[in-house]
Specification:
mainly alpha, 13 helices, 0% strand
């Protein structure tokens, strides 16, 4: 199995003719994918390619996150907790990749970014419909956000649908109720188009699950998976904030937000507040 002259021989069975076969490039639509990077700076600035690819890859991962979370919600409705937890586990791995990506963008210095930032106009990550969709499906709903997407009917329709649909947390609580846990009726019948707010009456339920984990292992494991999901999301938010501060300081965002100050407020948002509040009560 030696390699001569540092050159590997091709196996005889390797397919070479793709004139009538599907190839790797055609399956992945690579000509379309790799031709979708169009810097707008004039003269074209070297670092704008990094900025574009960073955000495009983020959108691809967000597409997969939405794909998994939609299925997770459906599995919870069908009482298939095992499949739902598998979906959440995959999302958690994607979240880690998304968080690590910020380190690549952080190599863009303030001076480098300032040389093409003005060409972006009002384009901003604030306008990412998929990011808002992930927030909505996890429970951070805000109907006022829809106005940002009125010029994009498809994105607006997607967000409107998710705004009015139960979140992952709503589906989980409904699942617990069907399994015989005492979930307050007020929680089960809440207006799902609003952000979930802390409900103190849920804390005793989760305290029971945590303090009797051996007897409620499936529910206990699901609670911890959701805590992981929120932890990962908050880490992503924090890395986003720090990357923005590192790159543009306290400047306003290109989309009209206050920039870092606006992102700082996002760290106060929560998806599953009772799963964190119960930690204070356990053992008391």
């Amino acid at each position: 199995m030696s390699v001569e002259k540092n050159t590997r021989k091709l196996d005889e069975g390797i397919v070479r003719d793709f004139s009538s076969r599907m190839s790797y490039a055609s399956y992945l639509q690579l000509p379309t994918l790799l031709s979708a990077q169009h810097p707008v700076s004039r003269p074209e600035h070297h670092d704008e390619m990094l900025f574009i690819i960073q955000h495009q890859t983020t959108e691809l991962w967000l597409k997969l996150v939405l794909h998994e979370l939609r299925s997770t919600a459906a599995w919870l409705r069908d009482d298939d907790l095992g499949s739902a937890l598998k979906g959440i586990a995959r999302v958690k791995h994607i979240q880690k990749t998304l968080t690590e990506q910020w380190s690549v963008l952080a190599t863009l210095t303030p001076t480098e970014y300032s040389q093409f930032r003005g060409f972006l106009g009002h384009a901003s990550g604030f306008q990412s419909s998929q990011y808002r969709a992930v927030e909505f499906i996890l429970g951070n709903k805000n109907g006022k956000m829809l106005s940002v997407f009125e010029s994009d009917p498809e994105a607006h329709a997607m967000l409107e649908q998710l705004l009015n649909a139960p979140s992952i947390y709503d589906e989980f609580l409904a699942y617990l109720a069907r399994q015989g846990f005492e979930v307050p009726e007020s929680v089960l019948k809440r207006d799902v188009a609003l952000a979930h707010e802390f409900s103190p009456e849920l804390v005793p339920l989760f305290k029971h699950i945590y303090e009797n984990a051996a007897d409620n292992w499936a529910a206990y494991e699901a609670c911890e998976e959701l805590v992981d999901l929120e932890d990962n999301f908050q880490l992503w938010r924090f890395r986003h904030l720090r990357t923005v501060q590192r790159t543009i300081g306290m400047k306003s965002g290109t989309g009209g937000s206050s920039g870092a100050a606006f992102l700082q407020k996002a760290l106060e948002l929560t998806f599953f507040p009772e799963l964190f509040a119960v930690r204070t009560e356990i053992g008391q």
